[in-house]
Amino acid sequence: MAQFDMNDFRLDGKVALVTGASDGIGFAIACGLAKAGAKIVFNGRSQEKNDAAVVRYKENGVEAIGFVCDVTDEKAVQDLVAKIEKEIGVIDILVNNAAIIKRVPMIEMSVEDFRKIIDTDLNSAFICSKAVLPSMIKKGHGKIINICSMMSELGRETVSAYAAAKGGLKMLTRNICSEYGHANIQCNGIGPGYIATKQTAPLREPQADGSRHPFDQFIVSKTPAERWGVVEDLMGPAVFLASDASNFVNGHILYVDGGILAYIGKQP
Ligand code: NAP
Ligand code: GCO
Fold first, then answer.
1. For ligand 1, is residue 100 a contact (CB within 6 Å)?
2. Which one of 88, 97, 115, 250 has the largest count of C-beta atoms within 10 Å of its C-beta?
3. Looking at ligand 1, which atom is closest to the CA of residue 151?
4. CA-proximal residue: ligand 2, atom 9 (nearest)
5. Which residues form the catalytic set?
């Protein structure tokens, strides 16, 4: 039997594109992949945010290259991928991380907002994956990691579009696996639980009287780990799914949620 090799977790020489990685979960995942040896390319919509991110990457010991590119714009994504392939190399690892959320009751949500969220959180993963797959297939391997959500499994008030997109992203993950597994492409998802980032800041804001936000208390009581996740919690799972150590893991959603999905909730 072949010896188990810890180097299978290494990503030396691999090129990783992490979308929407100027901050938050994408930034942390990119740092994790870089620590494992990958070359990091990221994108965001703002040059200013990208420039600030490059400085923060440097402070974390990571040489990242940032591009302005809107993931909902197919032509811009195709051009970006062609540029990366020409100047840096074929993308070995794609992390579809960019997303937006709008919390509003469904009957008050405009169809324009609903479409924009589906476009950013779901269609973008189709656009980016479609752009990188041909070269991955030619090269004979590839890793696509889709950043899913608790809302890939659960609903809740005010997040209809986001939940629809993240549920769809779970199935896009399984479909990419089904369609391209034969070409040695692994497409998996990471489903973060509730993670302390700007996206969830409004849910953690202290109340006027200084007490904790009710949603903050709700999440801590719903989570067996009894805390919010931090972005660093996503680094190890992302490295695993980007590495050869997970070459027979395909179409899987790895929930990194402190146990939320396993738990019925605190008894009264
Ligand atoms: P975040 O800080 O808002 O990060 C999202 C990033 O996406 C932003 O930095 C934004 O960058 C980028 N982005 C948005 N629209 C874009 C577009 N059209 N083109 C390119 N980039 C775009 O949120 P986060 O909490 O880190 O979330 C990251 C991912 O994890 C998302 O997929 C989110 O749904 C998922 N997630 C988050 C949590 C959580 O609790 N925080 C839990 C589960 C899943 P620019 O503004 O620079 O464009
Ligand atoms: C919300 C949150 C969630 C999280 C995350 C959960 O309003 O319920 O923003 O959707 O961000 O995706 O996994």
1. yes
2. 97
3. 43
4. 200
5. 162
Q: Class assignment of domain 6-196+229-262?
A: alpha beta
pLDDT tens, position by position, 78-87: 999 999 999 9
Domain spans of the chain, in order of start: 6-196+229-262
pTM of the model: 0.98
DSSP 121: I
Using most ligand atoms within 8 A of CB, pick from 29, 45, 54 the residue to mutate for ligand 1. 45
Q: What is the pLDDT of residue 4?
A: 83
Mutate to test the pocket of ligand 2, among 200, 254, 260 (most ligand atoms within 8 A of CB): 200
| Three-state secondary structure string covering 170-227 | HHHHHHHHHHHHHHCEEEEEEEECCECCHHHHHHCCCCCCCCCCHHHHHHHHHCCCCC
